[in-house]
Records
---
Amino acid sequence: MKLYKIHFDPLDRCGECPSDRSLLQVAQDLEIDLVSLCGGLGTCHRCKLQVLTGLVSPPTENEKSTLLPQEIKDGYRLACQTYPLGDCKVYVPPESLTALQRTQVEGLDITVDLDPPVHSYEVELPSPSLSDLRADAERILGILYDQHRIKCSTIDIEALRTLSLQIRSSDWNIQASVRGDEVIAISPPSGQHLGLAFDIGTTKIAGYLLDLDNGKTLAAQGIMNPQIAYGEDIITRLTYAMKSPSAAVRLQRLLIDALNKLILDLCTPIEAAPEEILEVVAVGNTAIHHLLLRLPVAQLATSPFLPAVSDAMDIKARDLGLRIAAGAYLHLLPNIAGFVGADHVAMLLSTGVWQTDGVILAIDIGTNTEVSLVNNNHITCVSCASGPAFEGGHIKYGMRASPGAIERLRLTDDRVEYQTIAGSPPTGLCGSGILDAMAQLYLAGVLNTRGRMGNHQRVSTSDGQREFVIVSKQERDGQPAITLTQSDIRELQLAKGAIRTGIQALLESEGRDEQDIEKVVIAGAFGTYIDIASAITIGMLPPLPLDRFLQVGNAAGMGAKMALLSSSKRLDAQKIARRVEYIELTTIHDFNRIFMKAISIG
Amino acid sequence: MANDILEKMKSSLLDLDMDATIENVNSIIRSDGTVSVQEAIDAISEALQVVGKRFQDGDWFLTELVYSGEIAKAAMELLSPLLAVGTSQQLGTIAVGTVAGDLHDLGKNIFINFARSAGFEVIDLGVDVAKEKFIGAVKEHSPLVLGMSCLLTVTAGEIGKVIEELINQGLRDKIKVIIGGACLTAGFAKDVDADAFAPDAVTGTDIIRKWITL
């Protein structure tokens, strides 16, 4: 049988395929994780891809009835129904990939006019002589002006400590990195100029290493926030920090150690040196911000929830123990108010919604969820304690998005069809899978609107409570069944209810109806991978046409990167923080009524 | 006949049907003593016990707890004024509030509805209640029970402070203290020397009822 070459974009993977194997099968051979709930029967319509060039089998009746005419015209097909008739090039849209591979292909680069606060200049120093007795520092400052017309008044003390040796060992040719009127680093002439952006979440930390000269992202990595050991939610962590000064030091230390480790993880693979990092930007919610800087938190944790500081800050990174260029600064974007911090500012910044006309909802879903309503330039925001349920926490078989996590799920009669991350045997449910499961149980009538689990072939009772069997003991070769319990449903009702309460509260306070919302921007790792239709089904999001929703990924991280590369974006961030009006959710009129309605399903 | 209408009222409450419950209460009132007001109040109390059981079993959730409490409250507002003076079955006065720094009142309000329906007179001190306000209320009203609610771990410490102040002012042995809220545990109650921890509104009401009737 003839073999055809199939090339998969944008993953850039290539393989050979005989004409009796479907594109789904060849993708699986190449370890491309296409979503396929039905296992290739053509019923789940998830393994959509676009044939760019080459001949393939004609669309089946099944495909004609499920794909839009325009999609068919554009070459969109279901991979499991398509067989090659020649060499092909196909494009895999992100939504057809499972979570892990989606992060790999998501655009890492941002478009922003380069205008970083740190600039580096090559300086050729004249050798000293008895007729030129200027000190090394003054010599550098003078020549910087002579050769580049850059006026600096100081050199960082740590840079001063190494400078004399450095200029002599590099034969009087150096690079001076300048921030404002300060020389923050002296380095050999060939060095790179790197910057670092951190998005520090309650649960996860994302780090990005960028080239300040061209704005390119050189490396991206995520790690867990180790403070979790002292509380999954931010309130518990603040309570711990309030116990004693040494407790606050411990929380800060844990975070700094993690950031230093992340810095090494980012630098090592690309053979960069941490000392080449000349600037850091960090964003996080107000509580994380305060724990990082070890600011007082007692007044933040209790009503009326006042931060110690809200404005943007520049501090020497070494003051926190960050191991990068000794003179480098850490820039913290401003906080808004209450727990709504710089991460939300960064999200509003990177998505641009703060400058948009119309009615737009911007949601960053996490352990703490921030919601903003842009109402024709008037922006209000709330913070909702949505908790860790959608990160897999407090859910019996909940887990983080890693191989083996069920990330998509569908219920047909008494059968459960599911997709795990990386196609591994199922070990639990991650956020998007949990959300799908709840929606499917509701649609099948297993859950009523109040969240009570009714009867179904797959519902059984264990430890005195009802549970729905997703993967049975038999299907797992004797390992315990993966289930969703009645208490899980209650946790999820509270979590999704908190988010919906935030949305409704903002709409009511602005006198807007849900139908007025023109666009819903959803950020955050969980928000990126959820099935919007499921989120609407359970009532986490308002029932709007699907085309009004936009899933933007880690928008807070993108905002941090923008602020790293652009001083004018930092000014924008300050404008945002001043413009956004914070509303304390619990003080909203009728909060309890809104919350009660929001925890119902549907 | 008398039992029929009481059962009807109970089941309408357990169906969470506000209108039907009010209608049933009104027909009891119109029955001219065939069913006494006290019997009706007792029936509401019984229905709320069922609510509590369903909640503890996981069959019902917050929404049902809130709605049933609201219905019971509306029914009690019709019935209480009709209790003949002197025969009042008012079990006693309790004072309840959410501690300083905390603005959550959902749980507190459910508890208040349940306690009122059980026949207690409840003084609602509101949210973000300062230590001084709790102490002032104890001095002014001499309640049998002081209830403190708290959702946030970070404000839980307030409970201990209020109890300490009760001790300092020589008020502690004149009053029972019950605490409740998502961040609390029975162990915490012991640590701060409270008399009881209520995991939910129904259990809380049961506990204070037992205190009073002992």
---
Amino acid sequence: MSRARTAGFHVTGSALAVLFLLPMLWTLYSSVNSRRAAGGEPGWGVDNYERLADYGSGVGTYLLNTVVVAVVAVVVTVVTTTLGGYALARLRFPGHNLLFLVTLAILMVPYTTILVPLYILLGWIGLQNSLIGLGLVLAMFQLPFGLFMMRSSFEALPRELEEAALIDGCTPGSALWRVLLRGVLPGIVTVGLFSFLAAWNEFVAPLIFLTDGSKFTLPVALFNLQSGSLGSVDFEALQAGVVTSALPCVVVFLLLQRHYVRGFTSGALKG
Amino acid sequence: MATVTRTRPPTSTRPTPPDRRRRATIAGARRRLGILYASPMALLVVVLFVIPLVLMVWMSFNHWPLLGASAPNGVENYSALQDPLFLRAIVFTLKYTAVTTVVLGLVAFGLALLVQESRPGVGVYRTALFLPSVVGLASTSLLFYGLFNTEASPLNELVRFLGLGSVDWLGSTDNALASTVGMITWRFAGFYMLILMTGLQSIDPMLYEAARADGANRWQILWRVTLPLLRPTLALTMVLSLTGSLLAFDQFFILTGGRHETATVVISVYREAFLSQDLGRAAAVSVAILAVLILVNGAQLRLLRRGGR
């Protein structure tokens, strides 16, 4: 009975696992094995990736743009929410409740609705069509999750740790950080990971904010590859592009899986 | 006098005037440090969230072309809400939201029940089922665009094997809707599975044992124990799924470009702003969407809180 149930569990589990992995595996496979992948003959080859590399401003440019946006978003999210989380968890200051509430309100506002005014505002401060501006906007959308995560990370540290550091002659601003940062490092990794995945994959914001083709991020460039060529879409190059765009996320996730799951169990998702 | 000092615990004599002053300066230093540390975040929130929010409302009362000068025009922009194309987008978005929330919810719940117990091998299944969720929605849509439109894709091979001929997956409103719901389920099921699994694991196993001891069968346990206790988690997944589907953009923009009457509400905002180049009307529609979603979220959060009690 129990053995039959275990067998049933594994059969169902592996069937579903195959079903969920199949679209990705097929895309990976047909990006390197097809007629157009190997110069006209069926077989293995990297021709699809070579055509992708030459598309538009070159896939290298698009990858670099995406990296710039993701790095800006991750660094800004991590630095602002670590400082802000510490301030809200340990330092009383006027307006701390207001700041917390307004930051969480970002969650309540559907973000696609404020993209139009953001487009105008970025123009006013000279950040329209700018990868830095895009990175800052994407960081802003990560603030509610990041702040919640970092505030509870600091709150979870024993106060004695801070007091011991102070008694040992640290000021709240200096070596204290070295003690506390080590304690909240898992939280920082989680916040950085969520921010990276969101920024790397973002589609609407770069579609609206970036007007210059050489500044496109990978998802927007691939969308142009799909929709720009009237009639004949180069499906094989598109598949190579999907692999290029998805692979970093899959690798980063598999390496940091533990930290991702913490984002769920910490209750931070409940805002 | 002497007896009073003797009975006092020694610690209470410590806050002497200079000491109190020192404590006050420490509190002041902490306050200044708090403001200093919170200011980068506050700056980001004010400049990129609060100001755009106010600007959105202001824009909605102005004639605001994409290029050129703007001028106040009262509530004229709000006539965009009566545009038949926009009304059609609302109907389609609501239909999509209803179907997605039900299908996705059921699949994710089934998966969560399957992988909730820790047993050998379950980690591999959890990872495999979750993996689509780390691929971006735009990349997912492009991936499925290939899957739907390539003759040799496993999907089309399967359909031919079943003798159904060739299917035009995105060729009509209904086909596009069904195909997109299928894709979204593939992409998000693992994500919601993980949330529901966390909820299931927080239910005390003793309750199951007690129910079994009372002679409850598996269905009765599911309906009488699991589902009521899972209510806060179910409400959370509902909030996320409803909000996400009402704001759907990437999937339809990429798969159909909004053709065959598959334009969603956000696609019509995008068209208003960047094809009709009328940012004022786009802002008016955005204000309306914002108001509706705050109402929906508010109602659901109340449900969530009541369930949590």
